[in-house]
């Protein structure tokens, strides 16, 4: 087990929490993380790009001019790709870019990414994040007190997912705030620091280590 210090919003140590080594103590899996990031970004593609081929271009089917005798090149249709406004040759069509990644691989990729940030010393746990009203200054002050960079991913539990907390960090350029239900390896690797609440750690242990308990 790994013992993590739990801090208050003023950076004072309020206690400890035991975390499984399977959550924060596994090795960096380069291939697995590559696949997880690729799947996340690929699934974000709309795949809605669309162009018309010559059969879809509306207009007259009349031949622009007669075949011979004009001195000009022969043409049969103004929808030809050779004409401005004509069809497009081999243009993009709507496509489904969805890429599935098994649940166990997805969860292990998240644990590997979290373990990497922990080994770098860029992961901090706080008791709870609460603000009476959303103010960017409070968010910046919290990160400074905990000695975390502005490029930090704040992860709260689903029960703690409050609009005041999200709004507080929304104006900090590189910071993002998500709940444990939205966590993914890409967001973890995209940020230098990770700020977890005690509740989010418990959620992650229950959700990401579920397979190991069954086995």
Summarize the structure.
The chain has 215 residues and is α/β, with parallel strands linked by helices. Helix content is 35%, strand content 14%.
Secondary-structure topology with pairs:
Layout: E1 2-7, E2 13-19, H1 21-24, H2 30-43, H3 103-119, E3 123-126, H4 136-145, E4 152-156, H5 163-170, E5 176-179, H6 185-190, E6 193-197, H7 198-208, H8 210-214
Helix pairs in contact: 4-5
Summarize the structure in words.
- It contains 8 helices and 6 strands.
- It is α/β, with parallel strands linked by helices.
- It has helices at 21-24, 30-43, 103-119, 136-145, 163-170, 185-190, 198-208, 210-214; strands spanning 2-7, 13-19, 123-126, 152-156, 176-179, 193-197.
Helix residue percentage: 25-40%
Largest sheet: 6 strands, mixed
Which overall shape is indicated by the principal axes computed on the Cα atoms? elongated
| Number of strand segments | 6
* N-to-C series of helices and strands: EEHHHEHEHEHEHH
| Number of structurally distinct domains | 2
- The separation of the N and C termini measures 19 Å
As for the CATH topology of the largest domain, it is Ribosomal Protein L4, Chain: A
Task: Quote the beta fraction.
Answer: 5-15%
CATH architecture of the largest domain: 3-Layer(aba) Sandwich
Counting DSSP H or I runs of 4 or more residues, the number of helices is 8
CATH superfamily of the largest domain: Ribosomal protein L4/L1
Low-confidence stretches: none
Which class of secondary structure composition applies to the elements?
alpha/beta
